[in-house]
Design goal:
Elements lengths: L2 E5 L6 H13 L2 E5 L13 E4 L1 H5 L4 H5 L8 H10 L5 E4 L3 E3 L10 E7 L3 E2 L33 E5 L2 E8 L5 H6 L12 E3 L3 E2 L6 E4 L18 H15 L4 E10 L6 H24 L9 H14 L7 H18 L1
Parallel strand pairs: 1-2, 1-4, 2-3, 6-10, 7-11, 9-13
Antiparallel strand pairs: 4-12, 5-13, 6-8, 9-12, 10-13
Helix pairs in contact: 4-9, 6-7, 8-9
């Protein structure tokens, strides 16, 4: 069974109500992770809700170790899905309404135009002619041209992570929101794969994970909130590409009615990414990793040790990551 994981501090939003209804109709299991600001009751047919008390009762070391009041509590939902034998894990947020294709089956092995040249890729330019870029892309990359899609060879690639785009209010940085216009709807132009050393940030708002990448689901806590999923995506690309695998980007399958944000606060949280994302990529590429499925967990630790050494992630992340990997290993050993 596919598992859908979200975290929320709100009563059921219209998007979550649609997600719960769709999950029931399509035979998916919806896991909703609450936090200390969540309402005292969360009643929604088709949603398996975990308040803090129920999270602590799971016995996961990570659930007890991670502080409250943070998006990284979503990691508890990933562990629950893995423990329940999830066929795939799809994650989104409580302000993303599913489009009809959200529920489509998507195979692990994909045949699609493939980017593998070294460097950054503004993947949004393959889905629209409008000037737009994904959150986390270095600012000096946003004007650079991309290779024409019809020039790319189509290869068969195992893609353990699929990033779907979002229409309406897509995942862009605060600079875009302050200076450009929304909404934006992407064109349906078919999927594209990145692999090798072709990097593009991806987020946690509309992302499908296959078991081959489950250890890499981990979202860091001790870093900028606006970078937690972006820096995770860099770690994931470094490890998956080293294993000869790719990332699939596909047409929009959600419509985002974005929750209220303080854009200047978002900008402040994103500055550390503008300043460091290019160096993070290069230093991750320079790491000597095992680059095999059986070394994925140790490779993950090495990547976060690098981010800690760069003083971008706090040293206390070590304990949280160890708790996550302990829980993951325990689940796998009991399967």
């Amino acid at each position: 069974m596919h598992h859908l994981v979200i975290t929320t501090i709100n009563a059921p939003t219209p998007a979550v109500i649609e997600l719960a209804s769709g999950a029931t109709k399509n035979g998916w299991h919806l896991v909703v992770i609450g936090d200390r600001k969540s309402p005292p009751s969360f009643e929604l047919e088709g949603a398996d809700y975990y308040d803090l008390e129920r999270q602590f009762a799971t016995g996961f070391k990570f659930a007890e170790a991670v502080p409250t009041g943070h998006y990284a509590r979503k990691n508890v939902g990933y562990l629950l899905a893995i423990a329940n034998g999830a066929e795939t894990i799809v994650e989104t947020d409580d302000d993303n309404r599913p489009l009809a294709n959200f529920w489509d089956e998507r195979p692990l092995r994909q045949h699609a135009p493939t980017l593998h040249q070294p460097g950054w890729v503004n993947i949004y330019r393959y889905f629209t002619d409008r000037p737009i870029w994904p959150r986390g892309l270095p600012l000096d990359e946003i004007q650079k041209p991309v290779l024409p899609k019809n020039s790319l060879a189509s290869d068969f690639t195992e893609c353990p992570v699929h990033q779907g785009l979002a229409n309406g209010d897509p995942d862009v940085d605060a600079i875009y929101r302050l200076a450009m216009t929304l909404p934006v709807d992407f064109d349906d132009r078919g999927p594209i794969v990145t692999r090798g050393e072709a990097w593009c940030p991806f987020n946690s708002q509309n992302t499908r994970w296959f078991p081959e990448a489950y250890p890499l689901l981990y979202l860091p806590f001790h870093c900028s909130f606006r970078m937690t999923d972006i820096w995770r995506s860099f770690v994931v690309q470094r490890i998956l590409y080293g294993n000869g695998k790719g990332i699939l980007f596909h047409d929009a399958s959600v419509y985002q009615d974005r929750n209220e944000h303080n854009l200047m606060r978002d900008f402040g949280d994103e500055v550390v990414g503008y300043q460091n994302n290019r160096e993070i990529r290069q230093r991750l590429l320079d790491l000597e990793l095992g680059d095999r499925p059986e070394t994925m967990a140790s490779d993950l630790e090495l990547c976060y040790e690098l981010l800690i050494s760069m003083e971008l992630v706090g040293a206390d992340e070590r304990g949280l990551l160890k708790a996550w990997l302990h829980d993951y290993d325990t689940i796998v050993s009991q399967a």
